[in-house]
Amino acid sequence: MNLPFVDLKAQYESIRHEIDDAIDAVIGETAFIGGPFVAEFEKSFAEFCGVRHCVGVGNGTDALYIALKTLNVGPGDEVITAANSFIATSEAISLTGARVVFCDIDPQTYNIDATMIEAKISDKTRAIVPVHLFGQPADMDRILDLAKRHDIRVVEDAAQAVGATYRGRPAGSIGDVGCFSFYPGKNLGAYGDGGAIVTNDEDFARRARMFANHGRVAKYDHMVEGVNSRLDGLQAAILSVKLRHLPAWTNARRKAAEQYRTYLASTDVIPPTEMPEVEHVYHLYVVRVPAGIRDNLREQLGEDGVSTGVHYPIALPNLPAYRYLGHGERDFAHSTKASHEILSLPMFPELTEDQITYVCDRVNARVAALAQDEK
Ligand SMILES: *Cc1c(COP(=O)(O)O)cnc(C)c1O
């Protein structure tokens, strides 16, 4: 059996006619930038997230950057975020001129350890960017409480968590602002780059939209210098089609996760923990295995035709890009340890139970043999 890590082609095949019609409609109206298709998607996506406003932007990294800029975060400020994420999160912070302050993760959920945030707050802290990693919302009650007590803003990096909930509230609608990515491999993926900012704050939405569109208030009337970061018509029309299918796809991911949990019998494989207060959307299905066997396991699963990933192999503070912060690996012990033990198994809505049992059989057998070798 040959199993890819994600299968975007299978999903396209299942909705080919709807997608092709949507693309034809955009080209027919030459509504490439702005226009009715973008407006329609923004409206339905805001509704989906349970918020009043959505601003489509060029990608998820820009969504974070524009959100922080719109909060007036800049040089001299500090922004706290998780030590285990994709670099886009911390990059967006640094792009504003603010200093990124990393916080270690909870080894069970891989999300920012909210009990460790307060020690990182200084009089320069302007915002916290919790990442809802792998599709599971972070410990938002604790984060919102800290933010309130210290008068700092919360920008959710919900790039991996579209459709997830925390105590019934949709990811992205819990903090001051929520940021999404529609990178093709994300749960709601475009056929190119795309992103969105969601909020209930009307004035914030207006200013974010202005900044994302050259700081413009009318055609050649620019209030500030902004950037060019817009969701385009083709992507918006494709996303509107896909948004209608997203709840079914999320259910399929959750079902696949349940089947993985059932069939992963090896005691050396720790399946992901889903916290009771959340609904996880399993953007990634990340298990933990003993550090000594992870890389061999990956290679052997590759020989078995099972593609896997590691998210992420180097914790952000340990990357060369952040050497200037002067951290040692011991400063982020849980993130560093996880980076050597985590393994992402294939996860996409079209996965079949046969494919899942095959992966689990191979994982169970390979882990047993590798653990034996270790002894
Ligand atoms: C994908 C991703 C981003 C960035 O999104 P792009 O659309 O690729 O710019 C930001 N944060 C996290 C956690 C992501 O997974």
Brief summary:
The protein has 375 residues and is α/β, with parallel strands linked by helices. 40% of the residues lie in helices and 14% in strands.
Give the CA-CA distance, first to last residue.
30 Å
Tell me which ligands are bound. Answer: pyridoxal-5'-phosphate
Inertia-based shape:
globular
Topology as H/E string?
HHEHEHEEHEEEEEHEEHEEHHEH
How many β-strands, per DSSP? 14
Low-pLDDT segments: none
Description:
- 40% of the residues lie in helices and 14% in strands.
- It is globular and about 70 Å long.
- Helix 5 links the parallel strand 4 and strand 5 (153-157).
- A 7-stranded mixed beta sheet has the order 1-9-8-5-4-2-3, sandwiched between helices. Strands 7-6-12 form a 3-stranded antiparallel beta sheet, with no helix packed on it.
- The longest helix is centred in the middle third of the chain and has 31 residues, at 233-263.
- The mean pLDDT is 97.
- With 375 residues, it is of the alpha/beta class.
- Bound molecules: pyridoxal-5'-phosphate (PLP).
- Pyridoxal-5'-phosphate binds next to helix 3 and helix 4.
What's the arrangement of secondary structure elements?
Layout: H1 8-29, H2 36-49, E1 53-57, H3 60-70, E2 78-82, H4 88-95, E3 99-103, E4 125-129, H5 140-150, E5 153-157, E6 165-166, E7 169-170, E8 177-181, E9 195-199, H6 202-212, E10 216-218, E11 221-222, H7 233-263, E12 278-279, E13 285-288, H8 294-303, H9 333-341, E14 342-345, H10 353-374
Parallel strand pairs: 2-3, 2-4, 4-5, 5-8
Antiparallel strand pairs: 1-9, 6-7, 6-12, 8-9, 10-11, 13-14
This protein binds pyridoxal-5'-phosphate (PLP).
